[in-house]
Design brief:
It is a single chain. The chain has 195 residues and is α/β, with parallel strands linked by helices. Helices cover 28% and strands 29% of the residues. The strands form two sheets. A seven-stranded mixed sheet has the order 5-4-3-6-7-9-8, with helices on both faces. A two-stranded parallel ribbon has the order 1-2. It has a single domain, classed as Rossmann fold (3-Layer(aba) Sandwich), CATH 3.40.50.150. Helix 4 packs parallel to helix 5. It has five helices and nine strands, in the order E-E-H-E-H-E-H-E-E-H-E-H-E-E.
Length: 195
């Protein structure tokens, strides 16, 4: 459940709840590209419980914070919009998650280390440009969730995925928007994830 701070009705016991004040930043959960990423995170939560997440183009912080609510141990979010980072940090505090997430102003190339799961809900141009170099941050057996794609752009994205040595594992579509879950194409580890 994602709700603004002024909604305080009881949360059903079977649901995780994220309080979100988006302000001017992108990411309220209502746009199909964000919703598709949230669905993929929900589906793969059990597989990545206790892991780290890298959220590229984090906007309001919605994907990082949702992942933490779903069982990820920690998250790193980056965005080239400084105002979005301020909003994301505020949202982390609203949910008491500020000690488990780091939001930084800048592009993906300021990040160090490897992550079992990476989300990138941006646009086709930046996704194609960064996909291959971003794979150096992908831990062995890890998954990258790509969204922000119109269905008409899927072929171009799939070409970039193949050039980056990755393979599409899952595809989701909603209202003309597409999200892809991709992994390294050089064979899968036993027990690998399909979301």
């Amino acid at each position: 459940m994602i709700r603004p701070p002024w909604h305080t009705s009881p949360v059903p016991s079977h649901m995780a709840c994220l309080t979100l004040n988006p302000g001017p930043a992108f990411g309220t959960g209502t746009h199909p590209s964000t919703h598709l990423c949230l669905l993929m995170l929900l589906q793969c939560a059990a597989h990545y419980r206790g892991c780290r997440l890298l959220d590229i183009g984090c906007g309001s912080g919605i994907l990082s914070l949702a992942a933490l609510q779903l069982g990820w141990q920690s998250a790193v979010g980056v965005d080239i919009d400084a105002q979005a980072i301020a909003v994301a940090r505020h949202n982390a505090e609203l949910n008491g998650l500020q000690d488990r997430v780091q939001f930084s102003h800048g592009s993906w190339n300021i990040v160090t280390g490897q992550f079992p799961c990476i989300t990138a809900n941006v646009y086709l141009g930046p996704l194609v440009e960064m996909l291959q170099p971003v794979t150096r941050h992908l831990a062995p057996g890890g998954t990258i969730l790509l969204s922000g794609l119109l269905a008409s752009q899927e072929t171009a994205m799939r070409t970039a995925v193949q050039k980056a040595g990755l393979a599409v594992q899952t595809r989701r579509e909603e209202e003309g928007w597409v999200a892809l879950a991709v992994r390294r194409a050089s064979g899968e580890e036993p027990g690998s994830l399909h979301v």
